[in-house]
Amino acid sequence: MMRGTTIMLPFRGLWLARNSPARRVPSHGTDLFGTRYAIDFIAVDASRRSAPHRDWRTVLATEPPERFFGFGQPVLSPADGIVVAAHDGEVDHEARRSQLSLASYMLGQPARVRQGVPAIAGNHLVISLREHGVFAALVHLRAGSLLVGVGDAVRAGQPIAECGNSGNSTQPHVHMQLMDSEDFSVASGVPMTFWRFREWPRGSQGSTIREFGLPAEDSIVEPCEA
Questions:
Q1: Kind and range of the H or E element at 194?
Q2: Are the beta carbons of 16 and 169 closer than 8 angstroms?
Q3: Which of 19, 83, 126, 226 is most buried, judging by how many CB atoms fall within 10 Å of its CB?
């Protein structure tokens, strides 16, 4: 895969990489909505847990998003740029870890696609980067957490919103993608890599510092201090 545009990880702390384009392209199994090279990040602790405890709701039902480490965590701008789209007002719905709740949720996927961008992306921001024609999208943001609006200039590392569970999301996480248009409905995905980060591959006790690259599937990553 092409190296593409290099940006910074849009968070602090430990996050688990899922649906990584380092594993497959399209990363989410579709090219719809510019997701070809998208990647998901789930906040975790040192034991790779996304939430501090499990109970009957984890196995049989849905769970409040506040249970999860990622919910409400700051989302940072991945690069310098200008905000060209901002959408808020979508609810943060219940999270789903049980197979029963996930199965019923997947049955509603075609209907969400027909409803369009808000039903898929939820609350989101799109930033026009300095590279002409490249747009960074951060989606599933927490309702009411957007700190910037259309026309605002942002700097790499600047807090711009909080991690949420809005749109097509089964638990709080940061979905990040680059596109060739600010309009999800017509955009194609653009390859990306990330600046300096520490990575713990799945099954390994040790970590490595990568100057740039894409996290492997199910690896834990943490941005390195500048």
A1: strand 192-200
A2: no
A3: 126
CB-CB contact of 36 with 188 (8 Å): yes
Tell me if 168 sits within 8 A of 184, measured CB to CB: no
CATH number, domain of 138, equals: 2.70.70.10
The pLDDT tens digits for 105-152 are 776 667 777 777 888 999 999 999 987 789 999 999 999 999 999 999
Residue 99: which domain range?
5-223
Q: What is the pLDDT of residue 226?
A: 60
Q: Residue 39: helix, strand or coil by DSSP?
A: strand
Task: Give the list of residues 6+ apart from residue 30 with CB closer than 8 angstroms, or none.
Answer: none
* Burial profile 92-131: b = 16 or more Cβ within 10 angstroms, e = fewer: bbbbbbbeebeeebeeeeeeeeeeebbbbbbbbbbbbbee
Q: Rounded distance, CA 177 to CA 134, Å?
A: 10
Type of residue found at 180: D
- Among 113, 61, 120, which Cα is nearest to 87's? 120
d(C-alpha 191, C-alpha 178), whole Å: 7
